[in-house]
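Many introductory courses stop at the sequence. We go one step further.
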Amino acid sequence: MKFDLSMISVLLATLAPALALFLAITWDRRQRRQTEKPPQSEKLLRPPGYSLSLRLDETFDRLIERALMASVLSAISSAGVIALAGLLGAHAPVSYVALCLLAVAPFAAGSVWAALRAFRLFNEAQNIRLGLRGEQAVAEALSEAADSGFRAFHDLQTDSNGNLDHVAIGTCGVFLIETKARRKRDGYNGQAAHEVLFDGEALQFPRSRETKPIEQAKRNAAWLADYLRNETGDPVEVFPLVVLPGWFVKKSERGNFRVNVMNANYLPGFLERQAKKLEPAQVRRIITAIDKKCRDVEF
C-alpha cells in the first residue's frame, strides 16, 4: 500500500495548483468588487458589441471554472481508482470495494459533466465572438458615414426587445441597423457560398432560410420610433436595415422590401445617397435622447 499511497500523494500534488488558482481567482474577484472604484463617475457611451463583449467575458469565466472543475474532479477520481486498485490487490472485503466505488463514481461523473460543459461553453464563445466581430465591422463602416454628417450609436438597450445593434442619425434620417454575422460554408443547390437571397420576407442562405432578422429589424425600428416620439415630442420615422458583413446580397425581382438588406461595405454609400428628411434641430433632439439611453457604461 505504500506505493499506492505515494501515487495518491503525487496526484494530490498535481491537483493543488489548479485548486489554488481557482481559489485565488474567486478571492481576487470578490476583493475587487468590494474595494475598487472607477476613477470617474461620468458614464461612457456603449461601444460596438458591448453586450456581446460582456457575454464573452462571462462565458470565458464559466469556461475556465468548468475546466478547472473537470481537472480537480478528474484528479480526485484518479486517486480513488488507485485506491480501488489497491483494495482489489489486497483482496479487501467486497463491502470496502463497493464503498470505494460509490465514493469514486460521483467524482468521475462530475469530471465528465464539467468537461462536456466546458466544450459547449467553448463553442458558445466562438459564436459570440463571431457576432461581436460582425458588430465591430458594421461600426467601422458607420465611421465612414460620419463624413456625411451621420452620428452612430451602438448597443442601445430597450425595455423588452433586447438591444439595438446600431442607430445612425443625420439630416438624411434615422436608421436602425441590425447586424447578422454568419459563417460561410459550401454552396448548395446552385447557390454560391457567398450569396444570400432576399425576397423581402426572408434571407435565403445556401443552407438555411431565416425570417427572424427581418422581423427583428422591423420590430426594433417600431420600438425606436415610439421611444423617440415620446422623448422628443416629434413623430420620427425609423428605417430598418439588416447588414450582413462579408455576404453578397441578391434581391429577388419581386417582393415587398420594407427592410433593406446589404453588405457592410455598401452601408456608407447607401446612407450618403439618402435624401434630406430632418431639420438639424430635430436631429440634435434625437441625438440627445439616444445619448441618454446609451450612456451607461462605467469607467
